Amino acid sequence: MRSKSSAERRRGIALHAALFPLALIWLFPLWMMFVFSTLPENGIFSRDIILTPSDQFVENFNLLESDTGFIRATTISILVAAAYTFLSVALTSMAGWSLACYRFAGKGVVLATILGTLTLPYFVVVIPQFIMVARDFGLHNTLFALIVPPLFNSLGVLFMRQTFSMMPHELFDAARVEGVKEWRIFLFIGLPLARPAVAALSIILFLHSWNNYLWPLLINSKPAMMTAPVALGSLIGLTKVSWGGIMTGAVMLTAPMLVLFVALQRHFVAGISAGAVK
After folding, report:
1. Does CATH number 3.40.220.10 belong to domain 69-234?
2. What are residue 228's phi and psi, to 5 degrees?
3. 135-177 pLDDT, tens per residue?
4. What's the Cα-to-Cα distance from 194 to each of 2, 83, 161, 201, 243, rounded to whole Å?
5. Alpha-carbon distance 61 to 272, whole Å?
6. What is the pLDDT of residue 89?
7. TM segments (predicted)?
8. Of 73, 86, 101, 70, which is closest to residue 185 (Cα–Cα)?
């Protein structure tokens, strides 16, 4: 037993020794992004190799706020990402539940259609979607236009379908025998069992909405409705690029997501790995 435990310890040490340099390579760009956010406006073009932070972060943030209204844009991004995540998780969970637990005419066609949408590039869909929302419905420059059109997520539906398919359906049948209504079975039995998958999907969808740039750029023309990524993009002009503001905004958008992932990584890994074991 001692030899086995010592061998496992040596393998663990060797694995960490191999992964540590890879972790440094991954973290180095994030560190340099933070360093650049603390340098003067043109410090990024300095001939010297600067690896330590300076003292211009507050000045860069003040310039960022005065140029873009970054606090307002970040608030809009938080509201949009939170609403999008909640509604999209609810929609994809219900769709996945119906595909996993019910038999109905055309189920195969529906599943094939959802799979087919994964092969379509987003740029094929975004222009008709923009015309429908902005011209036909007149909903441009609204929170509704930011949240609702991208709600349906094919990958999320298939992910939740796989999650519900792996559950013991005898448990659901027993609840039906006891007279439990279908919506209660889904809400109080299915969803609690799928909690790791729901947590993983929530993180993925929140990050997707948080980083979304193209759709908010197209559907909103008012500065007051800009999301944070669009606000950062507005700093890139024809004759001037505010590198200090861009790096400062990038740090402020990245840091909360890193903290969120570290705090919820146990649920994320459990939800992703659940589909690999049946």
Report:
1. no
2. -60, -45
3. 899 898 999 999 999 898 899 999 999 999 988 888 898 999 9
4. 39, 20, 11, 11, 43
5. 37
6. 95
7. 12-36, 70-97, 109-131, 143-164, 185-207, 241-264
8. 101
**pLDDT tens per residue, range 55-90:** 889 998 998 998 889 999 999 999 999 999 999 999
Look at the block and give the residue holding tokens 């972790």. Answer: 23
- The token pair at 18 is 């191999």
- For residue 20, what are the CA distances in angstroms to 8, 16, 118? 18, 6, 36
CA 197-213-235 angle, to 5 degrees, is: 140
pLDDT tens-digit readout, 165-213: 988 888 898 999 988 899 999 999 999 988 888 988 998 899 999 999 9
Question: Rounded to two decimals, what is the model's pTM?
Answer: 0.86
**CA-to-CA distance for 50 and 42, rounded, in angstroms?**
13
Neighbours of 97 (CB within 10 A): 24
Terminal C-alpha separation, the chain: 31
* Tokens 């933070």 found at: 34
Write down the residue that tokens 């905004």 correspond to: 249
Residue 111 structure tokens: 């599943």
Length of the chain (residues): 278
8 Å CB contact between 187 and 171: no
CA distance linking residue 73 with residue 67, whole number of Å: 12
- The CA-CA-CA angle for residues 20, 22, 28, to 5°, reads 100
C-alpha torsion 112→113→117→118, nearest 10: -20
